[in-house]
Amino acid sequence: MGRLNVAPLRYLSREDFRALSAIEMGMKNHEVVPGNLISSIANLRNGGCHKKLMNLTKHRLAVKERGKKYDGFRLSNSGYDYLALRALASRDVIASMGNQVGTGKESDIYLVSDNEGKEMVLKIHRLGRTSFRKIKEKRDYHDKRTTASWIYLSRIAAVKEFAFMQALHDRGFPVPKPIDFSRHCVVMEAIKGFPLCQVHAIQNVPALYEELMELLVNLANHGLIHGDFNEFNLILGDDDHITLIDFPQMVSTSHPNAEWYFDRDVTCIRDFFKKRFNYESELYPTFQEISREDTLDLTTCASGYSKEIQEDLEEALQMMTLEEEPEEEENEEDKEDARDNDQTNTEKDQPSCPEARNTSDLLQRYLDDSVGALDHTETFIEPENENLLIEYESIIPESPQKECQVDNDDIESQANTNRTTTRKSKAYSTRSMSTIPPEDVKARVRKEQFKQRQKIERKRMLVKGEASAVNRKRKENQDEIKDFAFFGNW
According to the model, what pLDDT value does residue 250 have? Predict the structure, then answer.
């Protein structure tokens, strides 16, 4: 990822940041943003976008990609950091930046201060490190996507953490006070203390153990489970009280694996107190003891809280608030039963689905054609085909139009009379009927033709000008061939 050097930030002009913002906007739907698209988005007053891009690549704020087929630019982590820092500085949230005080598998921690000299903490999310790359298995940032940019995933993590921190702080939980966020950076108040993993002696161990277990239960009663409740995410202050940090992985108590996450958090604390302080208590909370008091998982959109669960909860709340007389309920039930009976009767009278109607129409058309062929032509029908005709006739549902119906006795009599006249000539006729409706066949043909036209258009499409890496490569090869030919002749 590299270290964050903010020294060049003061020397960048407004046009440089416009070019950086143009790359960021282009990366919404481009992996590598072409130079002409960046210049059109930036729309610099005096032009010279290419010069600005070269200056950004010099400071490693942007990366120029020269691939096999495409040439363009993409944002680096430092460039994304500069955009976030400039946004926070323009809002007078931060004025200076200090040293790096911590690092982890998902983020870096820096000390910052505002115009008044108040010390704060800046957390920069950096997803994609080699120590933590299985984000699709551990988090739900991808949603239904298979791949996504690490920068975009870092932004989602920062938004989720700020939302959790704000909701918990408003309800009085021991968490840092959130101040502001921009892109993948979150600014919060600085907590004075030490991580619990660095503490080796405590005056009152049972009281601290009880406080941690109460915090776990209180979070679960509000609908949230921390998911990473261990000694590395707990800060012990000077007053021997705990402050909870690190929130992107929080899940809802309605999550399918909520009980497993809750039991894991409890086990982490019990094992730590047993190893570090030689303290083991028989009292510990279980997931069945949770009684919901609030819906923080709904307000923060925690993972595991689906729309179906939300609808069920709303229905349950409505049932609790409704107070109706039993007579009215009985009358409503009678009305609903009568409506259901009417609906079932109408469904019996009508065909069940359009597919059944199509099949019945096709079979009726087949029988009509077969009778017409028997009347006008001399054909030979085998006994197996006779049975098929009778079975098809039995399958057809009764229709109100009696004129279109044909009796089985008439079919058999006509088949017998025609069989006697056609045995001498031994003429055979076969009829094939497709069960696929003609509308589906036409739709498939149109779809296939559309695909063929798209293939032809792709072959004709050629990237021209500076954006064509293929043409650039061909030109370089031609120049090399000319140089070698010159030396060969010489």
Answer: 87
